[in-house]
Write a structure and sequence with these properties.
By secondary structure, the chain is mainly alpha-helical. About 50% of the residues lie in helices and about 5% in strands. The protein folds into 2 domains: about 70 residues, no CATH class; about 240 residues, Hypothetical protein af1432, CATH 1.10.3210.
């Protein structure tokens, strides 16, 4: 580590885990640490971030480093370049790779939902998400990956983390069926984007504490159609679109937006729907506290059995049990 340089008049910084800095990878952004009430340069842009740099951070118990907000685009490109090789590098502890997956996904998803009532999903975000899905479904196919990701699943509800949780659960269930890799990719992309239409719902409604009015409920129900509309200009297959449009449909026909029932609800949509319900029940929401996994599954089995596919439910329970989530 070279001479410590004070950062002149910092404007904005964002935190990342040191796990996200891959030794020996090319990097065109500077890394800072927080020391004595100021941001201090740790490694400048262009300098190799080595295993020794990471070791020093570990020894000093530094769990967050910082990057200038003006260099966020460079950081995102750096993650894109390296994500696939990192996730599949079995020499790295699976816990570290799980953290990389979760933080890389969070970075893009949060950026999407932080935009104010966007009219469409940016092509750049779509390309980033496609790469994340492609690399992540390979990682999630490895042994013990679901168990390793589970500790990062937050119980504090945010729309972007909810989308990631639904993606993880759905991919695990997709894998239990005879689906091709291309099919899993298409369905998984739909699972990750299933609630993208909520980016067009006012936050005062999404985050409202207490019961919604009938008018507010009707606005919420528009999000699947908003989601498809936001993605209309993108090269999406019908399999992906179905997961976005129909994830609130129920087998008894009481769902929305179309009220389709039984065999008209595609199997992958049933999987995304169940994952969506389970994650919503097991995270703290503005209007309800999180349930324990067994409580949520009991409620689904006893009260929602007419709404969900019970064969999918049985597989879902077996997968969670096998990953020691229950």
């Amino acid at each position: 580590m070279g001479t410590i340089t004070r950062a002149a008049r910092p404007v904005s910084y964002f935190p990342v885990s040191p796990v996200m800095l891959f030794p020996e990878a090319l990097r065109d952004f500077s890394v800072y640490i927080w020391k004595d009430g100021d941001f201090v340069l740790y490694t400048p842009s262009g300098q190799t971030f080595t295993s020794r740099h990471r070791q020093i951070l570990h020894q000093k118990k530094i769990t967050e480093v910082y990057i200038r907000g003006s260099e966020k685009a460079q950081y995102e490109k750096y993650i894109e370049r390296n994500l696939g090789s990192i996730l599949l590098d079995e020499s790295l502890p699976i816990e570290n790779r799980s953290k990389v997956f979760y933080e890389a996904s969070s970075l893009v998803m949060q950026d999407i939902f932080d935009r104010k009532l966007p009219s469409s999903l940016r092509a750049r975000h779509f390309d980033q998400l496609s790469d994340i899905v492609k690399n992540s479904i390979k990682f999630l196919a490895t042994d013990n990956s679901l168990s390793a990701v589970a500790p990062f699943i937050s119980h504090d509800y945010k729309t972007y983390t909810h989308c990631m949780h639904v993606f993880v659960y759905s991919v695990a269930v997709f894998r239990s069926y005879e689906m091709t890799e291309s099919e899993i990719f298409e369905y998984a992309l739909g699972a990750l984007l299933h609630d993208v239409g909520k980016a067009k719902i006012p936050k005062r409604i999404l985050n409202k504490r207490g019961p919604l009015t009938q008018a507010e409920r009707e606005i919420i129900k528009e999000h699947p159609v908003h989601g498809v509309s936001m993605c209309a200009h993108l090269p999406m297959t019908q399999n992906t679109i179905n997961c976005i449009l129909f994830h609130h449909e129920k087998l008894d026909g009481s769902g929305y937006p179309s009220g389709i029932k039984r065999d008209n609800v595609p199997l992958p949509v049933r999987i995304v729907s169940l994952s969506d319900i389970y994650d919503a029940l097991t995270t703290d929401r503005p209007y309800a506290e999180a349930m324990q996994p067994y409580e949520a599954l009991s409620l689904i089995r006893n009260d929602l059995r007419e709404n969900v596919d019970m064969n999918v439910f049985k597989r879902f329970v077996a997968i969670l049990s096998g990953a020691d989530i229950l």
